[in-house]
Amino acid sequence: MSVVLITPEAFLDKPAPHVDALCSAGFEVVYPHDPTFMRGFLSEEETIAELSVCDAVIAGGERFTERVLDNLPRLRVIARSGVGYDRVDVRAATARGIVLTITPTANFAAVAEHTLALLFAVAKDTLGFDRRVRDNSWQRALTEPIRGSTIGIVGLGRIGREVARGAKALGMHVVAFETQPDERFVEQHEIELTDFDTLLNQSDYVSIHCPLNTQTRGMFNRQVFDKMKPGSVLLNTARGPLVVEADLIDALQRGQLRAAGLDVLEAEPPRADNPLLNMDNVVLSPHIGGEDRLSSEMMGLEAALCIVDLRDGKWPEGAVINQELRGKWSW
What we know:
The protein is α/β, with parallel strands linked by helices. 34% of the residues lie in helices and 15% in strands. The model has no long low-confidence stretch (mean pLDDT 96).
């Protein structure tokens, strides 16, 4: 019997549609010994030990390095719960005939909702007012309007498009930087496509929705922050290392940026001495944007169905990252 290891903490030892789908298809479902395994803190040796029991894995944030993959001869499928796969050495997985899948249709709406939640929290100083009222200080102040402001969306994929829909509904002007835009969507929703520098200069809010790779790592640095509209806001619900955190802190401290809403950080969880933790103009959340109750259930099921399909000789359209394995891979 083929074994599937399920690692995301939200899925541990819980009856759910993804477990039913796997068990009905004849798989044995197991869980890691360390419930925090998916956070990616374990050594390569510990990671190998946890993964060595399985033929497929519904993966969280554990790290699939070349050395780890070299020591997993049973592994056939890495089914990422979510759309990011920066912790998987894709080249090494492909060379070893391991299919990597993501869940592209499961959580984009949740991330978009969380992005708008951060936007509201920053614009309306939600947390600041809450703290002051609780401290018996009925201190009122004018907040920033959202309607009529401009949001610049960097990356107009599924998440970026959903953010654009929400922003348009709020009466915002939407500009976007995207190298391969969905022209029909852009025209239908009256999105203004622009170059990166123009977006930075025009936007009151800049929202990041691009993948982390060698080209995008550290793309938001001091030079970029200096090009942003003075007093603007950075929103990041994508990946922490897209931003050079020290440069962001500097831009916030010197007033180039008014505020930031961050669901992701360079190091997760952050060190206790990270200055962002003590900045009143920063709203933080623990990389939870894509995981509400509905999206979590959908991600688990979509990942499970990718595994079942691959075992049954079906190729999961739109979900496989290393497409070069198509036609020459089998379970």
